[in-house]
Design brief:
Shape: globular
Oligomer: single chain
Distance between the termini: 28 Å
Bound molecules: FE2/S2 (inorganic) cluster
Helix content: under 10%
Mean pLDDT: 97
Strand order of the largest sheet: 1-2-3-4
Length: 155
């Protein structure tokens, strides 16, 4: 069903949690330097939110555009970047933001991920989170392609 399909090119990102759940995430809502927001892709025509597949859980954040390495920057948009939120260790949702280090942290066993270089900083995760290419349409964040790597537990 559409709710289970992976993110499709042209989908827009909506909040997965919180008071604005299911509403589009606007780039102006994102604080530069974090924290990230958890998101799901939504088909803009049918308004179907693809939230029946846990592997579609995304995280989206904004950093100064110059803070990304070239590989990450190639699929970011004006400092906004999107990753799978599913930890590559055992598949927990990466839900914590380390504000001091500006890193994403998995609550299960503490894997730390760097959004600027798409790499594992520390912990048991065997590989980085898969980046999802995005572009902006006005203030909305739009999926621009498929995940750039495998999603979910990689052990
Ligand atoms: Fe994320 Fe183990 S599932 S660190």
């Amino acid at each position: 069903t559409p709710e289970n399909e992976p993110p499709q090119e042209g989908d827009i990102l909506v909040y997965a949690t919180g008071a604005k759940m299911n509403q589009p995430i606007l780039t102006s809502d994102l604080a530069e330097g974090g924290p990230f927001q958890l998101a799901f892709p939504m088909d803009p025509k049918t308004k179907v939110i693809r939230n029946k597949e846990p592997k579609n859980t995304l995280l989206v954040l904004k950093q100064p555009p110059g803070s990304y390495d070239a590989k990450v920057a190639a699929h970011a948009a004006q400092g906004v970047v999107c990753y799978s939120a599913i930890c590559t260790h055992l598949g927990c949702t990466v839900s914590l933001w380390d504000a001091a280090q500006k890193l994403m942290r998995c609550p299960c066993h503490g894997a730390l991920y760097d959004p600027r270089q798409d790499r594992v900083v520390s912990g048991p995760a065997p590989q980085a989170l898969a980046q999802l290419p995005i572009r902006l349409e006005g203030a909305q964040i739009v999926v621009a392609g498929a995940f750039l790597g495998p999603v979910g537990a990689q052990v």
